[in-house]
Amino acid sequence: MLEEKILAPDFTLPDQNYVNHKLSDYRGQWVLLYFYPADDTPGCTTEACNFKDNLPTFEDLKVKVFGISTDSVESHQEFVNKYSLNFTLLSDSEKEVVEKYEANGMVGTKRVSYLINPQGEIFKAYDKVKPENHVGEVLADLNSYPQ
C-alpha cells in the first residue's frame, strides 16, 4: 500500500510475561504493531478486546499482533488478566520504540498502527485510528491483498 518500501525499524521489547520479542524474528510473516496510550482506559480496552475477539481471524491470515504502550510489564500483566487478552502486549517504558515509530504525542502515546509485510517492510501506516473500528479496517486491508 505504501509506494516507497520502508524497512520497519527493528527493536526488542519485553512482553507481559517478561519474554523479549525482537521484531526481526518475525520476518516471513505479517506483523501488526498497534500503539496505544494506556492500559485499562476506555478506548484502549475497546481496541484490545476487539483484537482479542478477532485474533483467530488474524491467526488464520498468519498475522502476529503486538500491542505496544509505555506502560510497565506489570501493568500489561494486570490488563491481560482483567480482560483475558490472548495476544502479546509489549512494554516500551523507555519510549524508544514509540519514538522510532513516531507514536509519541504531545500528551503520551498516539494511537497509531503499522502493518508490516513478511519482508519486514511497512506495508501500511494507520495514523488516524478509531478503537471501535480499527480491527475491521486492518482485516479489510489484509483481505484485499493477495496472500
From TrEMBL:
InterPro entries, per database record: AhpC/TSA, Peroxiredoxin_BCP/PrxQ, Thioredoxin-like_sf, Thioredoxin_domain
One Gene Ontology cellular component annotation held by this UniProt entry: cytoplasm
Pfam family, one: AhpC-TSA
UniProt entry keywords in alphabetical sequence: Antioxidant, Disulfide bond, Oxidoreductase, Peroxidase, Redox-active center
SUPFAM superfamilies: Thioredoxin-like
CDD domains: PRX_BCP
Transmembrane annotation, as ranges: none
The protein's enzyme class: oxidoreductase
UniProt-listed Enzyme Commission number(s): 1.11.1.24
Residues of the Thioredoxin domain: 2-147
One annotated GO molecular function: thioredoxin peroxidase activity
Family as reported in the entry's similarity comment: Belongs to the peroxiredoxin family. BCP/PrxQ subfamily.
Subunit structure: Monomer.
Protein name: thioredoxin-dependent peroxiredoxin
